[in-house]
């Protein structure tokens, strides 16, 4: 292309050629065939000394500077990043919880107690023991049935139209006035209708309930958990101690709901007490019972007999007798009933090789401060030698008591009076 005529530019308007340059940067979009750039030319303004040098250094250093800033930020805020759980981790933990249920999960997660008043009005002694169940088992529900609300529970679960639908049981319960009979009956009704953990108000929890099932057992094979209370079979033939010499504890019971043994106990009590009322020719509300009648009719002896019968029905390994639980060192499952040794629920009794509450195997501690019912039900007391139960299953003491009682009728009236006077002195015993 021919250039046009050259024009003279005044010297004061000329731009020095070394000050500004126009450069065309070749890009990926440059059309080499047509010889023309597809993008706009870039303008680079710099001095001749630092042209293209400073931008290149900055391009190399900026990533390094940014990396240092990010690393420093992470270090200064590491605790924040660490505390934020990964979504995958959350889902993984939830999956683990669902797939590996905790111990005791097949039993109802509820602790039951019964008492005269509600927990807001507990005396200090009752508050202390009851708190141990809540403190040791914070994930479980807790409820106390009182003299004011127990009937509402009975009617709700056993009344006409309920799932159990046994209005005859409700009527029977309403007709009873003896507190110990109602207390025994109510614990069996709770365990049958709802299940869970039952403990007398004066029983302290030493361990959480998930420790009640040894790890070697599959809890799906267990419907009931009980402990040995009295293991003195050598007194089986004793006229007074015999029926009480082999028994399971009933101040702590763990059960899944609707166990046949509980309903059997309820029905047994109904039949027995009606027969006793007929024998005494009084209404159910006016019946009177001795200490031994309570023990054998609704208490530990009745509880033990019903359990052994239930075990026999469920057990496939032969005859079930007390021999299976005599001198029991470790727990065993018989007929879907987990039987714990005497140390578990009844440590510190001073008999039956019950050990003490400081042992690892002790699970609960019975304080007996609510056990004043025996004073309202007479038991045999010899005028000179007292109660044989005071021997606390000591073999030599019981032998001496038996001998003295056997010789009593051979004494003269003067000798009998002398023995009675001696018995009144507190420093003399058997």
TrEMBL record:
SUPFAM superfamilies: Nucleotide-diphospho-sugar transferases (SSF53448)
GO molecular function per UniProt: alpha-1,6-mannosyltransferase activity
Pfam family, one: Gly_transf_sug
Keywords of this entry: Membrane, Transferase, Transmembrane, Transmembrane helix
Transmembrane segments: 62-84
GO cellular component, as recorded: mannan polymerase complex
Family affiliation: Belongs to the glycosyltransferase 32 family.
Record-given protein name: Nucleotide-diphospho-sugar transferase
Organism, scientific name: Fusarium redolens
């Amino acid at each position: 292309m021919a250039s046009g005529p050259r024009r003279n530019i005044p010297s004061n308007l000329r731009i020095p050629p070394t000050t500004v340059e126009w450069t065309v940067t070749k890009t990926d979009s440059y059309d080499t065939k047509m010889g023309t750039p597809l993008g706009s030319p870039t303008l680079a303004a710099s001095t001749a000394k630092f042209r293209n040098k400073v931008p290149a250094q900055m391009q190399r250093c900026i990533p390094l500077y940014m990396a240092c800033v990010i690393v420093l930020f992470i270090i200064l805020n590491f605790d924040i990043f660490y505390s934020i759980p990964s979504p995958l981790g959350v889902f993984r933990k939830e999956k683990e919880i669902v797939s590996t249920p905790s111990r005791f999960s097949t039993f109802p997660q509820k602790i039951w107690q019964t008492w005269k008043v509600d927990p807001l009005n507990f005396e200090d002694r009752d508050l202390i023991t009851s708190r141990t169940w809540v403190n040791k088992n914070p994930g479980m529900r807790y409820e106390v049935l009182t003299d004011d609300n127990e009937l509402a529970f009975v009617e709700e679960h056993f009344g006409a139209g309920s799932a159990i639908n046994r209005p005859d049981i409700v009527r029977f319960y309403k007709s009873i006035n003896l507190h110990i009979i109602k207390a025994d009956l109510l614990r069996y009704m709770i365990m049958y209708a709802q299940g869970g953990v039952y403990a007398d108000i004066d029983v302290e929890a030493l361990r959480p309930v998930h420790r009640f099932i040894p790890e070697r057992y599959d809890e799906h094979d267990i419907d009931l958990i009980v402990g040995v209370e009295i293991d003195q079979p050598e007194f089986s033939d004793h006229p007074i101690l015999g029926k009480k010499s082999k028994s399971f504890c009933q101040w702590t019971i763990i059960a899944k709901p609707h166990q046949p043994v509980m309903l059997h106990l309820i029905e047994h009590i109904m039949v027995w007490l009606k027969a006793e009322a007929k024998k005494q020719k009084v209404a159910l509300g006016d019946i009177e019972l001795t200490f031994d009648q309570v023990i054998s009719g609704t208490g530990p002896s009745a509880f033990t007999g019903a359990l052994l019968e239930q075990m026999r029905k469920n057990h496939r390994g032969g005859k079930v007798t007390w021999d299976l639980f005599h001198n029991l060192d470790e727990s065993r499952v018989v007929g879907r009933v987990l039987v714990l040794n005497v140390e578990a629920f009844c440590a510190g009794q001073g008999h039956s090789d019950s050990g003490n509450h400081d042992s690892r195997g002790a699970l609960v501690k019975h304080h007996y401060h609510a056990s004043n019912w025996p004073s309202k039900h007479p038991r045999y007391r010899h005028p000179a030698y007292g109660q044989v139960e005071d021997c606390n299953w000591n073999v030599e003491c019981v032998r001496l008591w038996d001998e003295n009682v056997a010789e009593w009728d051979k004494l003269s009236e003067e000798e009998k009076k002398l023995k009675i006077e001696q018995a009144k002195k507190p420093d003399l015993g058997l």
